Amino acid sequence: xxxxxxxxxxxxxIMASVKVEKLExxxxxxxxxxxxxxxxxADGEFMVVVGPSGCAKSTLLRLIAGLEEVTSGTxxxxxxVVNDLDPKDRRIAMVxxxxxxxxxxxxxxxxxxxLKLAKLPRAEIDARVREAAAKLEIEGLLDRKPKDMSGGQRxxxxxxxxxxxxxxxxxxxxxxxxxDAKLRVSMRARLVQLHRELKAGGQRAAMVYVxxxxxxxxxxxxxxxxxxxxxxxxxxxxxxLYERPANKFVAGFIGxxxxxxxxxxxxxxxxxxxxxxSGQEWALAPAQAARVLASWxxxxxxxxxxxxxxxxxxxxxxxEQAGLCGEISLVERTGGEAYCYFRVNGDEYVARLEGSRAxxxxxxxxxxxxxxxxxxxxFSGAGGTNISLPAV
Amino acid sequence: xxxxATGGWRLRKNTAFLLMVLPGFIWLVLLKYxxxxxxxxxxxxxxxxxxxxxxxxxxxxxxGLQNFEFLFASQNAWIITRNTILYNLVFIVTGTILALAxxxxxxxLLNRRLAKLYQTCLFFPYFLSWVVVGYLLLGFLSFDKGAxxxxxxxxxxxxxxxxDQPGVWPYILSFINLWKNAGYNAVIYLAAIMGIxxxxxxxxxxxxxxxxxxxxxVTLPHLYKLIIVMVLLAVGRIFSADFGLFYxxxxxxxxxxxxxxxxxxYVFRSLMYTxxxxxxxxxxLYQSVVGFILIMLxxxxxxxxxxxxxxx
Lengths: 392, 312
Ligand SMILES: Nc1ncnc2c1ncn2[C@@H]1O[C@H](COP(=O)(O)OP(=O)(O)O)[C@@H](O)[C@H]1O
Ligand SMILES: [Mg+2]
What we know:
Chain A is an alpha+beta fold.
């Protein structure tokens, strides 16, 4: 029988999956960090948990890892409830933000440590460490101690230490946040690639990756869970989150530059629904209007209207479409595209324009913009729920 | 740029640091380096003359290594040297291990308030004067009124003349030394343990290390350098014994000299009874020189095995 948490060669790989049900965490000082979370992660899935700092992402991860005690609810890994299991028996591996490599051990010893403690045969340990080192291209670093490595190299050793254990679940807690911007981008790609390679190699481990960076989340995750204040706001694929945010928070958090969201009023005129925002009045598209009508806010007509910068463009000569007109405060040109910030009726908007179309726009100019209203979202005034979403 | 200009620039740049170093520097020169002039006493036949100390010093005749001869010729030289070194070796080993054990145990206590309480209790004996400790011990070991003999009596055993039994004193003194000093050293180690990043322990926990293995693989390696420095400092003092411990605690009992007499107590008694400043200075110099050589040696050995852990 293999030691818990580790596979011996030839042993059947168990399908990995994480299931979190009604999970609550109250810290000893009485602070309630998690308010009943439900989350399922399929085997082989790359799940990114994203949210602003302090929303209890690390808490969730540490509960799955077994580093914190569960207050209530259950955590299942594979087919076992792991609430009362020690971290080492949960078939998980974790990569820490500061890497937490043992400073007095070489890279090799760091990677071999867990296997050594599990009393695996020496040859097997060596084979696994070298295989992982090859995957991560750190064969040349195996004799070095952490202090003689760069941040990126340490990062890879930390990942290697996780890989050699062949866990069911990889847990990453903001592993890239200590790297410089360029390295972060390349490590991002490497980790995704690594996940794919592991999967192709028959190791269908789930990855739970915590970050506060929505760009990281969008580029890495098969699915993304957005958290806020210890609650899950939405779990879905990156594109679904972007196109169909369940609420105002997700809409504002995902996407860069952020969605333009402003106070708005709703009016029913026969079958039509008109949204009044920033001094403008736009009729919603029929399908959208029907959905808004179906969940007409009980608390009256105060709502939020959200429109992505991509859905605002410079007005053409036609001019019969819904439009905005405002003084430009800033134009950020990144080359291929430009972000144009302007003010309408005291509301700040940003539009994403093609670089060539931004042309000669200058701060101080008055710009004419057209808005693709049917790409907008209506959020209820109180809860911020997206009431213009198509029912699934 | 001339060398002078560079020097001036560096002086200005580091003024604040130099000022911080100044008090320590003055202390070092005034109390540690100037008195070294007194070393000449070790090579002089000192006699008090009219005109005070300096006059006497000037007028005393040189006597070469006579003072050292006198020290080493006495049959006690071997005993006191052996005692001093053996005691110190035992103290270093047991003291370090116990202090580490206490520190690790305290650091594992989840209840911080209780941990502070224990820490204070363990720390307390360090502040007791040796005279007090000596009489506390007498309360236990006194022939007719001591608690220990009282207990022996309860079991029907004969009372023991503890202050007449040289054989048991190495154990008693080692124990007293631990009791008094371990708490103090433990605090130093505890502070270092508290500074270790918790993530190492969590990583080790996930890697499957139990508490004991976490101590071996995380705590001790992090304390390694501190332990080396502490041991190195202790080795430098291996030729100097804790005077109070060896003089006050056995109550300067003559019957115990074979196992309690150390260089410091011997020198002190010599000075008391013979007033021979030359010989006592020679003994002091002997302690310092050997201590210095030992520090250099140990540092060299450490350097050979682990360059970065060496002190200099
Ligand atoms: N050991 C603890 N005791 C009390 N409160 C804690 C503890 N750890 C974290 N918290 C609190 O729980 C909340 C979530 O923390 P954390 O999970 O670290 O957030 P994140 O990783 O999303 O930034 C924060 O408000 C934090 O202050
Ligand atoms: Mg965190």
